[in-house]
Inverse folding.
């Protein structure tokens, strides 16, 4: 007699459907926020785009603020994961192509749907006190993760004076390019700025001593 196959409990497919519904809502919220802004992105609009009922949406997210802060955090984590994965595809250290790829990826972090959605959320948070604390905390965490990832990818030694500010300047520049890209297609100028920043970083960071005797470990990455 063969071994019995454990019966699949009824809760498992229900949990899978719940996770799938939640994911649909998060991604629909990001799309709505990027396209319609805060005022045009109601729970009903998001639910309709996700193909679920308003009641199902409110089952997962009690308020609109809960939904959109969770959505921006979700995409931020996905983008950070993609950025960390770049480390496995980079050319050897010291190559101008390597630095250019890193800078381009960091700039992309601030020029895609995530940045558009986050910007709308920032504007809304400036007028809504209960949303402001959540968004401020979220953006602080995302900013710290972006900075740590940039430092690790660039193999930068922040104990050397000026290096931390150089990396932060890179992220501030990327954010500025993201703002410029909101109104017009700024890709041509962006490409030139990315190339110039890569040259600047190659002229500064390779002179620094390696802080770990090798490549730093990316935040959250396996050793």
């Amino acid at each position: 007699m063969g071994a019995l196959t454990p019966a699949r409990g009824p809760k498992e497919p229900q949990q899978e459907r719940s996770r799938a519904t939640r994911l649909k809502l998060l991604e629909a919220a990001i799309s709505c926020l990027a396209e319609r802004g805060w005022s045009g992105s109601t729970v009903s609009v998001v639910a309709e785009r996700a193909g679920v009922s308003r009641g199902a949406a409110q089952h997962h997210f009690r308020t609109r603020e809960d939904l959109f802060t969770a959505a921006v955090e979700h995409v931020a984590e996905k983008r950070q994961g993609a950025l960390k994965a770049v480390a496995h595809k980079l050319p050897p250290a010291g190559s101008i192509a390597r630095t250019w790829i890193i800078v381009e990826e960091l700039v992309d972090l601030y020029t895609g749907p995530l940045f558009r959605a986050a910007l709308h959320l920032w504007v809304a948070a400036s007028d809504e006190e209960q949303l402001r604390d959540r968004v401020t905390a979220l953006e602080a965490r995302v900013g710290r993760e972006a900075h740590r990832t940039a430092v690790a990818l660039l193999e930068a030694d922040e104990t050397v004076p000026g290096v931390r500010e150089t990396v932060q300047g890179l992220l501030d520049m990327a954010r500025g390019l993201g703002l410029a890209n909101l109104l017009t297609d700024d890709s041509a100028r962006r490409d030139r700025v990315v190339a110039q920043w890569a040259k600047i970083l190659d002229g500064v960071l390779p002179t620094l001593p390696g802080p770990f005797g090798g490549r730093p470990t990316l935040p959250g990455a396996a050793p």
Q: What stands out?
A: Residues 11-36 form the longest helix (26 residues).
